[in-house]
Amino acid sequence: MSFFIHTEADLDHAIAQLIRIDPRFATVLSRAGRPPLRRRPDGFAGLASIVVSQQLSTASAKAIWGRLTQAFDPFDHAAVLRARSARLARAGLSASKIRTLKAIAKAIDRGELDLPALAAKPADEAHAALTAVHGIGPWTADIYLLFCLGHGDTWPAGDLALQEAARLLLELDTRPTSKEMGPLAEAWRPWRGAAACMLWSYYRTTKQRDGAPIPATPTERRTNG
Fold it and tell me: 32 near 204, Cβ under 8 Å?
């Protein structure tokens, strides 16, 4: 049965279960503190905001998102379908991000992507449905599942900060790759989403920088701009 992290109480429960499975997370909690909930809106707007924010500073992403939501009311898949690419570009979107948003809007319009239905699917199935859309990479799918839908077992294996935090926690000689991150987290099922939140906080505390989240793979960068 899937567990969802929708509330502060849900997160507390997931953390407690994670610590029971792996007591090393008690050390993470004592050093980094309890991670924030970090919920985001779901649906097209939530997914689009993740695409828009990739590889941008928080300030730049906020500015572009503000221009988009001001230019399109509402900013939904139908508006993106109708919009000319030049109008989207004037808001600050790169060509690759425009292609991704257009692809998402088309998939929704054709019934190929049912965003509301993803909440009822296991995380792995929901992830596969998202990444089947051109332009949605694994990292984007994972962040949407974890922060927009609250899937408690989501594991963004391609995130650089998460990889480095896992290296520190597990005392590895080198930072694990995306492929290696999967087996490393198997013991934390079905609480891998809570593990990710805790490790991001651990990264931020250890490195003294904002560490949640950072897309890692070159493929993801090329895909979403």
Answer: yes
Q: Rounded to whole angstroms, how far apart are CA atoms 4 and 1?
A: 10
- Helices 95-109, 43-53: axis angle to 10 degrees equals 160
Peptide bond into 215 cis (omega under 30): no
Give the tens place of pLDDT for each residue, 194-203. Answer: 999 999 999 9
Would you call 159 helix, strand, or coil by DSSP?
A: strand
pTM here is 0.88
Which tokens belong to 202? 């651990």
154's torsion region: left (phi>0), alpha (psi -120 to 50) or beta?
A: beta
Cα–Cα separations (whole angstroms), residue 118 to 7, 185, 200, 215: 19, 23, 25, 22
Neighbours of 210 (CB within 10 A): 12
Task: Please tell me the distance from the alpha carbon of residue 106 to that of residue 97, in angstroms, as a whole number.
Answer: 14
Please check whether residue 198 is in contact with residue 29, taking contact to mean a CB–CB distance below 8 angstroms. Answer: yes
**Residue 211, CA distances (Å) to 78, 183, 186 in order:** 34, 22, 22
Task: Name, of 1-10, 21-30, 208-217, the range with top average pLDDT.
Answer: 21-30
Q: Collapsing DSSP states into helix, strand and coil, what is residue 33?
A: coil
Q: Are 42 and 115 in contact (CB under 8 A)?
A: yes
> Using CA atoms, how far apart are residues 72 and 93, in angstroms rounded to an integer?
14
